[in-house]
Amino acid sequence: ALMRAIPGMTVIDVGDAVEVRQVCQAIVDLPGPAYVRLKRGEIPLIFDDDHVLSLDRADVLCHGDDVALFASGMMLAPALAAATVLGEHGVGVAVVNVAVIKPLDAQTVLRVSAAARVVLTAENHLACGGLGSAVAEVLAEAGLGRPLRRIGLPDTFARGAATASYLFGKYGLSTQPIVEAAWTMLGRPGPAPAAEVATAADGEYSPV
Q1: pTM of the complete model beyond 0.85
Q2: I need a labelling partner for 69 at 20 to 30 A (CA). Which of 40, 90, 97, 131 fits?
């Protein structure tokens, strides 16, 4: 949120170790400053080695016409897991990896949102000022009316913990809250399907 307010700043939130390895080369020739959020510890490895981090476009990783789910950084793995759970229960989810928060790929945001009934954003950040706010601004300025829910930290300072999974569960940044938000927004009957928290498999280590 702070970096978005600085003129000319490029704001990047990489999704996994593959994008971490590529980000320095990607930003070296930018004409202005860049702010990059990196990972530490074990997080899921999402992309193959042939994946290319783009600073110009957001990546649509899967398609669906019920929910447009925009995710960045460490929330990308839970977003993909939520899409799988929802898909098994008849909900089509388009998941978009938004590695660049500013300048936002407004064209992809509008195209994917227009094809869906509801819009969700998920970020490891305060719910205000980051990805969710950027998406909301694009939708509002284009006059595209879609219900929007932003999943992120509440207005509080997060505590520390020995494991990331504990903190993500405590602050509602795991797979289940995404599933529940989509289920509720679509007005589906009964309780939302249960989901497991996305975790890193053995050997999936981000070097930062």
Answers
A1: yes
A2: 40
